[in-house]
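Suppose you are handed only these lines of text.
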Amino acid sequence: MDRRYWDEELETAPWPEVEAWQAGHVVHFLDGLRSRSAFHKDRVDSAARPAGTPRSLELLADLPFTTKDELRRSQDEQVAGEPFGRHQAVPLSEIVQVVSSSGTTGDPLYYALTAADLELWRQVIAAVFYTAGIRAGDVVAHLVGLPGVAGGLPYADGFRTLGATLAWLGGFPTERILRSFPRLQVSAVLSTASFGTYLTDHCEEVIGEPAASLGVAKFLGGGEPGFGQREIRDKVRAGWGLDHVREVMGLADVLSAVWGECDDESGMHFCAQRGVAVELIDPTTGQQLSWREGASGEVVYTTFAREATPMLRYRSSDHVVVTGVECRCGRTSPKIRCIGRTDDMLIYKGMNVFPTAIRDVALSAVGDAVQPYVRIWKERADQVRFDDAIPVDIEASAELAAERYPALASRIEAELRSRLQVRAVVSVVAPGTLPQNAYKTPLVHVRSNAEGNAK
Ligand SMILES: [Zn+2]
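From them, the structure of the protein bound to zinc ion can be written out as follows.
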């Protein structure tokens, strides 16, 4: 019989008990880190030791954060035998796999897995996909084309671990991918949100048949915010003629899938209880925040079971909003939506604004009149501040007459002003104008560079 949870004990235990159990592991992790890595030793030694026997993740509160820049510098030292950086905590002879960050926000960083790390990743990623409704009977089209990134081989392992049939079609031409769906009786698709939206729009043009005729029943998106947006989700749902659209999220630096959306479809549950402690912090003060519905902040991870490249309070740059702390599905972990990344954040007259928020407001303001393709212009790659109106292009839907574009643009500008307090100059452009990318489509483009060269 189909079981309800992948890891029932940890997925359904009261959250404070899960944190208490994790806290015990974190204490051992901290003791071990001292001897395993010079990078971590200095940092742990310089912090005050938590007193008594900590029973919650408050014990992490006084320890230093780790940032991507620090990892980059650590990796740039290129010490012999430590290609992954000074934070590499095992000899090369114990490492069995390299995982790369996607490099969408700078040069890629490389992470390592031991055999034990690999087994933990398989179990957690399987739990994420199980939570997102993938089952042993599914034939899953895995559309990430790069095996070496977080969403590549690790996701393939996750699907096989839970017993689904892996159909790794990522990397083939779009036409071959789409024609393989009916041939292989593909029931579920995993892709980035950008590519999922792209396939939805272009299926009929590429193979002469609508996506809804291909028999796909489940659609999973990850790798970037997108499927959290109702309009994008509705588009995928309508295009493929299915009900099941879910989001998953993770990161190479920590574990490539740690959040998965259950059948309540109201946010992604944390699914990595077995190996990762998760904190929500105020990104400005660094203070821990409690997991309560409506709270928002940056997610910080401690990989207390990771051997090869362990992370202590890693600042993910992912800003999330908590959509729930209890759920009809019976899982007890917090549920979130990702609202953007620090790297993408723009500052308009001193206020932070995420490009995804601009897209979300535009889409929800005018619904079907536009497509979810949005481009925000910067003058220079390093521009973060905007003191003048932010230039935004958005694609019209095919049904909209061109003479209605200017009125629609004014309406979107008014919504952005009233809902985000942001002034924008919106241009509604003809369908097919904006670049679409097969992997991840950046929302922000630099005007002085060639088109499509983001950030
Ligand atoms: Zn749930």
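What can we learn from it? The chain has a mean pLDDT of 90. The first strand starts at residue 95 and ends at 100.
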